[in-house]
Hints:
This protein is an alpha+beta fold. 40% of the residues lie in helices and 24% in strands. The chain has 2 domains: 2-134, Beta-Lactamase; 144-299, Alpha-Beta Plaits, CATH 3.30.70.270. The chain has a 5-stranded antiparallel sheet, with helices on both faces. Strand 7 (217-222) and strand 8 form a beta hairpin. The longest helix has 18 residues, at 154-171. The chain is elongated.
Amino acid sequence: MRSRICHTMADQERTHHDTHTTKPDPSSWDQLPIGLFAFDRHGHIVSCNESFVHLLGVIPTANLTFERCTSSSFNLSGAIRNVLNGETVRMAGWYESPDQQVRFIRTTMSPSFSADGQLDGGVGILEDATEQRRYEERMEHLSSLDPLTELYNRKKVGDVLSTTAQETVESRAPAAVIMLDIDYFKLVNDTFGHPTGDLVLRSIAQLLRRNIRKSDSIGRWGGEEFLIVAPQSTLIDGVQLADKLRQKINAEPFGPVPRVTCSFGVSSLEGGKTVEQALQDADEALYVAKNRGRNQVSSKR
């Protein structure tokens, strides 16, 4: 039935076209796994195959328009306007169909021309790339993680810090930067062995992640050192969060290790301070906390 309707749409439109037009009829290719479609110079769909209808979750009618095939991150209607200006358009994005099916769709569209060389519409293809995109996103996610703690790795949390720094400039809202280090971690490894040291690292990582906000980001900065980026937080907010985390760690058992503590250095991103300056301030504050006896929080504005 859909194929017959699509053919009817094409037949209706052809009565208004020059008989010399060479535009293909995608509705004759219903067995292909990719969506095929054609549209006239007014942007109206004049022909499509079954896969086009299936991928976009629309019902083929004589007045099917691209406005009904558009979602917030996949503006098919807007892309058609560029094609009708003579451009070839390649686009990809997440598309939510009217039946709530969400797919990642890639499309390529090109203008079509009549026998006398006049632009009379366009043709395009649609491809369901959902599985490929999800695989790519999974690989991107894994590449951003530290394999031992499953927190962000140094590069990723550094990228988050840079983005947050830019946002503080644009919004003039502060952000706190917290650097923490496990006290006497070498002694843990030497006394209990590296497997136990790894257990302590993983356990502290999980504890930290459980006790920060969803808007905060945390990563393993290196060795036994971690970095937390807390947007929309003042220096005082950062100190309060750091002390809460310090107390949580201080009270937590870590397998055979009778007691583990951490020292914290806190700085802030405000007043146009650079990422490098914020990191240096946090590192210097951490050094002060270590020198004052460890298991405490120090800050530098």
